[in-house]
Amino acid sequence: MTKVRFHLAKGPNYQRWQVREGDDVQYYDTEDVILELHGATLRNQRGTAERILAGSNKTVCAWVECEKCVVKPRGIHSVLDVEEFCHYNPRRRAHWFNTKNQNIDNNKYEYLATFGRLIIIPINTTKKS
Among 30, 39, 88, 123, which residue is least crowded by beta carbons within 10 Å? Predict the structure, then answer.
């Protein structure tokens, strides 16, 4: 299982996508690549997120868990049709939310993709039960 998250710790990988598969960790510049996340689930540690929402310091509490992550150069590959966006900011809400502000924690999708700093749900992507 692969875990993908937006890295916010200070240092050379600040604001890059972190892709972790077991002990292997890679970082990708958001402007250079698109990550295709197959068999993706939006994960969140709700208790930690609620503490951050109440004013505690930010710490890692959300990620996308996926069966497969494919890294593609952004100039060659693009995602054209967007159904909606997935958002996560525990300073605003203690859960993943979509463009309609609905809680989408633990939602499973056949396919998600990144574009810059965004996670998108492409049109015709099947939400899994």
Answer: 123
Q: How far apart are CA 78 and CA 54, in angstroms?
A: 37
What is the arithmetic mean of pLDDT over 83-94? 93
CA dist 38 and 72 (Å) reads 13
pLDDT digits (tens, 9 = 90+) for 3-36: 999 998 899 999 999 999 999 999 999 999 999 9
How many other CB atoms sit within 10 Å of the CB of residue 73?
A: 9
Identity of the amino acid at 117: R
pLDDT top residue among 122 and 61: 61
